[in-house]
Amino acid sequence: MAITAQDVNRLRQETGAGMMDCKKALTEANGDFEAAKDILRKQGQKIASKRADNTTSEGAVLTQVNADATVGKVIALACETEPVSKVEDFKNLAQAVLDAAVSTNAATKEELLATPQADGRSLQDHITDLMGKIGEKIDVVSYETVTAERVVAYNHSNGKLGVLVGLTNTGGKEVTEVGKDVAMQIAAMRPIAVDKDGVDAATIEREIEIGKEQARAEGKPEEMLEKIAQGKLNKFYKESTLLNQEFVKDSSLTIAKLLDNTNKGMTVTEFKRVAIG
């Protein structure tokens, strides 16, 4: 069967695949459009398998909160190279992933990827299709949810960093504004936990041992090492836990004090920071 330019263009419009790939698929399928689509999908599956171990250090991070600002979602769709992250199809796919996350409130990444799209096929199928079209590994590398009385989202200008922060004591416009400030603090200062109670035991033990070794190297007496290490641990809490950090816009305030000044007793219940690259 002769394959016409119109046939190739139609398949390209329906699948988004390249002209040569469409022509090759139609030729192999003897002009059968559905069979040609299956061939293109298998091409995506082959690329996904072949590039499974490749590093994905580029991509897009997107955030969104629901209508009443009580649930926030952040997703990271990653690819191998920066040019691919700027392709319109990639951007559209990232938005589709976020839209599915918000609309379904999927509990896990696996549940999210199984979400059916308008054509009845799963989100993972669409990701695989784009891999076949672009020729790179594409993957949802992060999917996080924050639920709170008020959730505020922040996207960094580079499109590769997103933050969700959950707050108590909801109020008016000032709560959203201070939430943005706190989210930007998280983006810039990379706290590891909300407060010292959120720091895991292994990290605490490691910091104490580091403090002891530093003090020992400085010639401090053995009987003083524990006390010195505890002092260094308190400094670690101040630098590395959100509520104890100095506010980057006003060093006279900690984040805890900033929130309390905005609304008495207000605090952060949870946060997520997701970055690519």
UniProtKB/TrEMBL annotation:
The keyword Metal-binding does not apply. CDD domains: UBA_EF-Ts. Keywords: Cytoplasm, Elongation factor, Protein biosynthesis. One of its GO terms (molecular function) is translation elongation factor activity. Residues 74-277 form the Translation elongation factor EFTs/EF1B dimerisation domain. It is found in: Cytoplasm. Gene3D superfamilies: 1.10.286.20, DNA helicase RuvA subunit, C-terminal domain, Elongation factor Ts, dimerisation domain. NCBIfam families: tsf. Associates with the EF-Tu.GDP complex and induces the exchange of GDP to GTP. It remains bound to the aminoacyl-tRNA.EF-Tu.GTP complex up to the GTP hydrolysis stage on the ribosome. Belongs to the EF-Ts family. This is Elongation factor Ts. It comes from Rufibacter roseus.
